[in-house]
Amino acid sequence: MKAHVFAEDSNTTAEDQTKPAKEYFQGLFGTVAGLTNELSESADTSLHILSEEFGVLQGEQAITDAPTPPQKESANLWKSAQEELLTAAREADVMVILLSTDTFEKTVGKIWAELVEEAKPDSIWCIGAARSTLKSIELEKLEEKGCSVIAYRRVGVARIGTDAREELLQAVDQKASE
After folding, report:
1. Please, which residues have CB within 8 angstroms of residue 151's CB and are 6 or more apart in sequence?
2. Which residue of 8, 35, 46, 137 is most buried, as measured by CB atoms within 10 A?
């Protein structure tokens, strides 16, 4: 089983840029790293971190291994993120997208119809975004493909709520045992 987690970086960071990106970004990013670790107990899990400073990073990738020069043009970042989202949707049994409104609109929002088209039937999708953002996309289209959808209406800086997290982990455990 394959899981993909998409999240943004954090302003709080470690000093050591040779650490994997999932450890370099700290503060509230810890909830994303923790969720990724829990998912990896049941699925082959990839963490994709969107960073305006470093581009699209993989969770295990050291900051020092980020493309040089870093993607300075944000248009390149958003295009790269869109490409990774589409590639992940094709193979993901579990797709987790935890993005702020602005980042969501520049990535997922621009390619929603394509993402739904590429979504693996019967996959699990967990989307954490602001209420207005969730209303701007048609989650029903995923459900029509047989996908399970867990939506977390993001409040403030919380990337995923406790209930949504538990629901996601239970759904993944159940799918893994099938």
Report:
1. 126, 127, 128, 129, 134, 139, 164
2. 35
DSSP state of 14: -
Closest CA to 34 of 48, 22, 46, 50: 22
Distance (Å, whole) CA 4 – CA 146: 18
Q: Which residues of 23-62 are buried (b: 16+ CB within 10 A; e: fewer)?
A: bbbeeebebbbebbebbeebbebbbbbbbeebbbbebebb
Q: Output the pTM of the full model.
A: 0.94
* Tokens encoding 175: 């799918």
* Cβ contacts of 66 within 8 Å, gap of 6 or more: 51, 54, 55, 57
Question: Do the Cβ atoms of 137 and 114 come closer than 8 Å?
Answer: no
Mode of pairing for the β-strands spanning 55-58 and 44-51: antiparallel
- pLDDT tens across 27-63, in order? 989 999 999 999 999 999 999 999 988 889 999 999 9
Question: 169 is written with which tokens?
Answer: 């982990």
Give the CA distances from residue 77 to residues 9, 117, 150, 154, in Å, rounded to whole numbers and listed in that order: 13, 22, 26, 23
